[in-house]
Design brief:
The complex is a heterodimer of chains A (270) and B (286). Chain A has helices spanning 2-38, 56-60, 65-97, 102-112, 119-132, 139-164, 167-175, 180-208, 212-217, 225-235, 239-263, 265-269. Chain A has 270 residues and is mainly α. The longest helix of chain B has 34 residues, at 61-94. In chain B, helix 6 packs parallel to helix 12 and helix 8 packs antiparallel against helix 12. Chain B has helices at residues 2-10, 18-39, 52-59, 61-94, 97-112, 115-126, 131-138, 152-177, 180-188, 193-204, 206-222, 224-231, 238-248, 252-285. The chains are: A mainly alpha (270), B mainly alpha (286). Chains A and B meet through helix 1, helix 3, helix 4, helix 5 and helix 6 of A and helix 1, helix 2, helix 4, helix 5 and helix 6 of B.
Chain lengths: 270, 286
């Protein structure tokens, strides 16, 4: 009798937990699947299920010069912001990661704070700042703003990698006569490289996807992809946007799998 | 002597952080100070200074309503995300190697897909011709399409999906740190699965729950794109309110004051969760 009650208890627990988990996983995957699915419609609207299937909207992408232009801008800004984030962020991480000074702890919190502050408030304040110092909005102001919101990802991942670095390796390297620069190149850098790559990858995605900062810091000539797509979607449900989304999803999955292999992405995010 | 030599080869000079610190001072701290200063301007010309903008906000039922609904939205999204996300982390813990990989891919995918793309998918799912309406109509359960887009529950559902990775990842970390022997001990001592979960697993994963809730809450209330695309014109939340005041109405001092109030609200929430996190770590380590 008591045995049977325990079985029921175990069964109900497993069924409920697994059931909710599967529901959540379907919920997580559904939007991605849906976008790719409807992007192959042959109709003019995003009706579900599509009346028929074709690749016409993917072909249409070749002529969608507005989207292409916006995409090039977003890629350029993201590349610059990522480059600057890695350069400044890794240097800063080296300085603060193994230091017990209060300054280092304060700087660590400062560098990570854009992660929790509302980006829109930061975008607005940057616009106020640039207009006060008389610098008109331009690709330069965009890159500066994007770097501020991207650099925390690089700092977080680099600091975490440096914290795991065994100091005896550096002592061994030094005792064998290696200079500091040589030790850095041959010991520190190879060991923290996966962390830097994962951080740089997330920083790139964060910049490429950023709307709130771009809204305030771009000039009229610099159309950014997420803003272009957002405005296209507010006006009309454009199927070309679905095709572009399909392309972005495939590229993202491919990059994710590559980063998982070379940098252990998922281990760095948990 | 030897100690200092060793130390000097294992640590790097704090000065390496100077360029980024300087950049943050100029392009992050200074703008926020300017934002604060501007919020004290009584009028857009800046002829007088005072608390006018704050008084205006706090005396205005509409503005307070926007703040209230934004903070409440965060609570609803965080609760739903925790309810759905916890079992995902639990399943990840028990899954075999390949299952872990699949779950991780499904969890990470939304995190790295463009937020516009994710939100756009929800427009397709929730729309009048969308999947839910097509399915319910096909089953003959409804005669006319349900209004799902531009509703509160639509926004909560879409935000829960968009922010779920932020909840699941810290939970996976927390669950992996729990000694599996504790659950075994609990069941050997006669506790059932539900009781073990309530009394052992759940309390021990508290740091992960708190970290996940903090990230989800902060992201949900600031998720500008999802809020405006799924919520539509009738629902106004703080980020859009700031944007309207700043861009459309060019009322910078008021926009600055709203931003400061919003920032303060976020900081209060972050501090509360941080204190809770410390307490819970003390509790789980005890």
């Amino acid at each position: 009798m008591s045995n049977r009650r325990i079985d029921l208890d175990a069964l109900s627990f497993r069924v409920v937990m697994t059931g909710i988990a599967l529901l959540a996983l379907v919920l997580l995957a559904a939007p991605t699947v849906v976008v790719v699915w409807v992007s192959f419609t042959n109709g003019y609207s995003l009706k579900f299920p599509p009346p028929g299937y074709s690749t016409r909207w993917y072909v249409e992408l070749w002529n969608a010069w507005q989207l292409q232009f916006a995409m090039m801008n977003s890629l350029k800004v993201a590349a610059w912001a990522t480059g600057l984030s890695v350069l400044l962020g890794v240097a800063a991480s080296l300085g603060i990661a193994r230091s017990e000074k209060l300054t280092a702890r304060v700087l660590d919190s400062l560098f990570l704070s854009p992660l929790v502050l509302p980006a829109l408030a930061f975008g607005l304040s940057s616009l106020m700042f640039f207009s006060l110092v008389g610098l008109p909005v331009s690709p330069l102001t965009l890159i500066i703003g994007h770097t501020v919101v991207s650099v925390p990802y690089v700092v977080r991942n680099s600091v975490a990698s440096l914290a795991q670095l065994n100091p005896s390796l550096l002592e061994a390297s030094a005792s064998l006569g290696a200079s500091r620069l040589y030790s850095f190149r041959r010991v520190t850098l190879p060991l923290i490289r996966p962390g830097i790559m994962a951080g740089g990858f997330i920083a790139f995605m964060a910049s490429f996807d950023n709307v709130p900062v771009s809204l305030f810091l771009r000039d009229a000539a610099t159309d950014m992809l997420p803003i272009r797509m957002w405005q296209d979607l507010e006006g009309k449900l454009d199927v070309t946007v679905a095709a572009l989304s399909g392309v972005l999803i495939v590229v993202t999955i491919a990059l994710m799998l590559v980063m998982e292999r070379v940098a252990g992405l998922s281990k760095r995010l948990t | 002597m030897a100690a200092t030599t060793l130390r000097s080869v294992t640590t790097y000079d704090l000065k390496l952080a100077a360029p980024l610190a300087l950049g943050f001072l100029v392009f992050f701290v200074t703008p926020l100070v300017i934002l604060l200063a501007l919020s004290f301007q009584a009028d857009p010309q800046g002829s007088r200074y005072g608390l006018t903008q704050y008084v205006h906000f706090l005396a205005d039922r509409f503005s307070l309503g926007v703040l209230g609904s934004t903070l409440w939205l965060g609570v609803k999204v965080t609760a739903l995300t925790l309810l759905l996300g916890y079992p995902v982390a639990w399943l990840h813990q028990r899954a075999p190697g390949w299952g872990k990989g699949v779950i991780m891919l499904l969890v990470l995918l939304p995190l790295l897909t463009s937020v516009v793309v994710r939100t756009f998918a929800w427009v397709v799912i929730l729309g009048r011709q969308g999947i839910i309406n097509a399915a319910l109509g096909g089953l003959g359960l409804i005669d006319a399409p349900l209004k799902l887009l531009y509703t509160d529950s639509g926004v909560v559902m879409a935000l829960a999906q968009v922010q779920m990775p932020l909840m699941v990842l810290p939970l996976i970390t927390a669950l992996s740190r729990i000694d599996p022997n504790l659950a075994d001990a609990s069941s050997v001592l006669g506790a059932g699965h539900w009781r073990t979960f309530r009394k052992v697993t759940l309390p021990l994963s508290l740091p992960g729950i708190i970290a996940g809730c903090l990230l989800t809450y902060a992201a949900a209330i600031t998720a500008f794109i999802t809020q405006s695309l799924i919520g539509g014109g009738q629902m106004l939340f703080m980020p859009m309110y700031i944007y309207q005041q700043a861009s459309t109405l060019q009322n910078w001092p008021f926009a600055a004051a709203i931003s400061i109030i919003f920032l303060a609200a976020v900081l209060v929430v972050v501090s509360v969760f941080t204190v809770l996190g410390r307490l819970s770590r003390g509790y789980t380590n005890a």
